[in-house]
Design a protein that fits this description.
mainly alpha; two-stranded parallel ribbon; 10 helices; globular
């Protein structure tokens, strides 16, 4: 990643929901909910306090759903509990606020950063340019950054990059990704 986790999560939400065919107003509602939830996490260092506030926000949102929307979410209570648990976890809190750029600005070893063009989880257009800029700021002279055409987050050939495609794709990893890594390793004397 090349930007703060919160930016990745906003991008991820928008791209995934677009790929699922959600209308713009629904995507805006998801973003609004993310804004509320992320604010709660950032403002409440105590996990128990954050969990209580997150649960309140989620319950309020669920109460606004239509009967059809509620029907689409089979077990709303279990969903709300799982979402709350994930949001208040130490990992999520760290990811939400972590900015990789200060660390990347110190990296002096050779770097290969690859990303699939159709990656909806870590958008290459959002992440690769700041990553490259941070590595340049480190005066790192050995940086290779590649966006691999047609590949998703798992480096598989993909039509849309949608998570729904993951289970349908039989390819474990695309040969283009293996070739990019293999060529980089060979160029750096690994495996000789």
């Amino acid at each position: 990643m090349g930007v703060v986790g919160e930016e990745i999560l906003y991008s991820h939400g928008k791209l995934i929901n677009k790929a699922m065919g959600l209308p713009e107003d629904s995507i805006a509602k998801v973003r609004d909910l993310q804004d509320q939830l992320f604010a709660v996490i950032k403002e409440n260092a105590d996990p128990a306090a954050a969990a209580a506030k997150v649960a309140t926000v989620i319950a309020e949102r669920l109460s606004r759903l239509t009967a059809d929307e509620r029907k689409a979410i089979e077990n709303m209570q279990a969903l709300a509990e799982a979402q709350t648990k994930m949001l208040v976890s130490p990992w999520f809190r760290h990811f939400l606020m972590y900015d990789p750029r200060p660390t990347l600005e110190k990296v002096q070893c050779p770097v290969l950063a690859i990303c699939g063009e159709k990656d909806l989880q870590v958008d290459p257009k959002l992440n690769l340019p700041p990553m490259e800029a941070a590595l340049k700021k480190a005066n790192n002279k050995d940086v290779t950054i590649k966006e691999l055409p047609g590949l998703n987050h798992l480096f598989q050939a993909s039509e849309t990059g949608s998570l729904a495609e993951y289970q349908k794709i039989e390819e474990t990893i695309n040969p283009a990704a293996l070739e990019a890594v293999g060529q980089w390793l060979a160029a750096h004397g690994v495996g000789k």
